[in-house]
Amino acid sequence: MAERLVVIGGDAAGMAAASQARRRRGPDDLEIIAFERGNFTSYSACGIPYWIGGVVDDRDALIARSPQTFRDDHRVDVRLRHQVTEIDLDKREVVARDLTGGGEVRERFDILMYATGATPRIPPWAHTEALGVFGVQTLDDGSALRQWLDGEPRPQRAVVVGGGYIGVEMAEAMIQRGLSVTLVERGDQPMSTVDPDMGALVTEALDGLGIDVRTRCAVTGLRVRDGRVYGVDTAEGEIPADVVVLGVGVRPNTDLAAAAGLPIGVTGGIRVDLRMRAVGMDRVYAAGDCVESVHRITGQPVHIPLGTHANKQGRVAGLNIGGGYATFPGVIGTAVTKVCELEVGRTGLLEAEAEIAGYQFVTVVVESTNRAGYYPGAKPMTVKLIVERRSGQLLGAQIVGRSEAAKRIDALAVALWNYMTVDEMAGLDLGYAPPFAPVWDPVLIAARKAVDAIHDGR
Amino acid sequence: MAERLVVIGGDAAGMAAASQARRRRGPDDLEIIAFERGNFTSYSACGIPYWIGGVVDDRDALIARSPQTFRDDHRVDVRLRHQVTEIDLDKREVVARDLTGGGEVRERFDILMYATGATPRIPPWAHTEALGVFGVQTLDDGSALRQWLDGEPRPQRAVVVGGGYIGVEMAEAMIQRGLSVTLVERGDQPMSTVDPDMGALVTEALDGLGIDVRTRCAVTGLRVRDGRVYGVDTAEGEIPADVVVLGVGVRPNTDLAAAAGLPIGVTGGIRVDLRMRAVGMDRVYAAGDCVESVHRITGQPVHIPLGTHANKQGRVAGLNIGGGYATFPGVIGTAVTKVCELEVGRTGLLEAEAEIAGYQFVTVVVESTNRAGYYPGAKPMTVKLIVERRSGQLLGAQIVGRSEAAKRIDALAVALWNYMTVDEMAGLDLGYAPPFAPVWDPVLIAARKAVDAIHDGR
């Protein structure tokens, strides 16, 4: 008799697991049922801001594989608009509510894949039921927001709350749609995902786009009339708004998991082992934005919700469910984004994170260019390295530049992954030709400067 | 009394050494004399094709630091148009001919820095004294070529002999100047610095530029009338030419070194130790295109003339001359270039090189895109990995793409440098956002595919 895999959550992690498991085990050997609360499977949540902004025209372009593809090609019984409400690990069954037809279904499982993703943090002041207030976590969220922006009366003024990646990307998207935009950030500056000195360059770029950036500004409430939002209250007064986008971060969506007794870690994410099994559980896997990962530099658990991790983790889970062997080696906090023409990349620890982790470190910042200075189109590029004071081990790196900059973080990410010291890095054989780099690559200049800084400090 | 450093060769390696030595030792402690045969110091030879093509307007933009700067700021006694003709290691002196004024000078040295670079291979059929025939090794070569191209009668037809990096870049430069161009390559295809399957994409790009590419075509002679070249003879007939550019490669310029008894390796380059000292010699350093390096993957000596190595090696030599400690860790064969919009990157071994080194290997090639497929401007990108069959260790990688492609080789170069296996690489935390990569980075897709290939082969 076939075993049964039940997948909770039909996005990247869940469906990557389902398709990998299917690759190794046919339908006669493994039955797969996937419950998805929304209307879509396997889409690029990270692409939503670009679709909202009109950079990407077609919503369906964001969908990697449709439910029908999973049903036909992968023989996965995908059940959309089904919300799992209970997991019984003793009876090994789940209960799901049919959000369309109503009613409840129960399904037994041999193997469980928990991949419910993350949920936007809802601040205490937020009336998410008010019309005109949106998160942008799911494609359904995105659809609702786009409809609102196209509706009448046509929204003119947007307030984006929160200056993280999503907030910044959404602020730009709103500008691209012709709205006037205020970005409200509680902290000292937007993009706290890089150090303040690098983040200042982002703030500049946002200013350049005409975005009204309000920092150290706490939102205290929403103004709602006739069920529609018309403003945001802050400590410094009201900001008028026809649409409010919440980008205040997400938390692992683990309520159901916690109720069922799955192990929850200090970050709020599910604890998993190297093979993406929930720690201590029998044939229960978890992956994606609902789990926590190990940071390879600090060794500490972290919650870094990103599509690339979700895909990798889902694949690892699926390979193991399929009888193979694969492990997820942890993360190092690499991320890239852009604001208008400004590109930002980071990997490893920020200064504040290195501090918390207990490192003594030096930092170096170098200004260089992405191409040979004399080559047309050469643009400034700033590289920052954070380096353990004694060993010279790279702890973190950040790059800000105008073009061909962000993805250069990858070379630093691989160096960091391999625990390289800046001494070793200064000798790296990186690609050189005038259209692509100065003869001393900015990464090498930064490494050299860090070597000097450390030797002076000895 | 001050010691004296004599530098032979005033380009990247020699002058990097001079300035690093100066940083650590003042003029009272170390006198520095630099002999340079040509008219320039410390310039970007790699930039010459772009200056010839008019992409870079100003010759002086290629000069990193002028002789006067070295004299004034670094207190280096730079003697231009002085060709060293003899090194006497017993007497510890050099003899140099003054190419302008005539006559000879003798200078004693305590420390010698040999940095004479490389010389273009001159095929037996070449009359380099014929007008209209040029190498492009030095800035003086470039100046002469530019003058010829601007002269009367205005050259219309160019033949570039040799399809390596320089040949391909020069062919494009000639097209940019409005000449009709024939590229003659003895081998099966131009750009033999990548595997044939990747090189085919380069040939396509050259065709697209309107360059007449003749492969398996051996040049047998030049046609010269009244001292001017007017054609190139090949086994398949004559090709008319008003200008002929030789890009048939270079050899380490070691005649002088060999005569003086410096150790010459199997590649023809000077053998040096980790600190860039000529092996077995007392206080004699060598760096740049005249030395051989260790390839970190094969452990074999290689001669890879590149400005980036010359700069690094010169700096290492200079630090050691200055009383510091620095080592050059070897090379892994990383290189990048572009042909029109086509970008090419490579690192490590080609298939043929892996074969010669004795590896059993598998190769994988993946077609992907530089950005998320749905993001505007997404362009195709091909990634090839060469992987040791048993261990899964990365041996080589090549990338060909349309934009934002070549420098991605750096992440692979760092992986290779650290002897990563494709299993490890499949888990790498690389930067992801739709404007910069698909959710599965092409590098990760390639690594995954290689993992599959290896496991199937076991």
TrEMBL record, chains A, B:
UniProt similarity note: Belongs to the class-III pyridine nucleotide-disulfide oxidoreductase family.
Cofactor entry: FAD
Originating species: Micromonospora zhanjiangensis
Q: What is this protein called?
A: FAD-dependent oxidoreductase
User: Superkingdom of the source?
Assistant: Bacteria
The UniProt record lists the keyword Flavoprotein = yes
Signal sequence annotation = none
Question: Carries keyword Flavoprotein?
Answer: yes
Domain Pyridine nucleotide-disulphide oxidoreductase dimerisation residues, every copy: 336-438
Domain (FAD/NAD(P)-binding): give its ranges. Answer: 4-304
InterPro entries given in the database record: FAD-bd_OxRdtase, FAD/NAD-bd_sf, FAD/NAD-binding_dom, FAD/NAD-linked_Rdtase_dimer_sf, Pyr_nucl-diS_OxRdtase_dimer
Stored Gene3D superfamilies: FAD/NAD(P)-binding domain
Q: Which UniProt keywords apply?
A: FAD, Flavoprotein, Oxidoreductase, Redox-active center
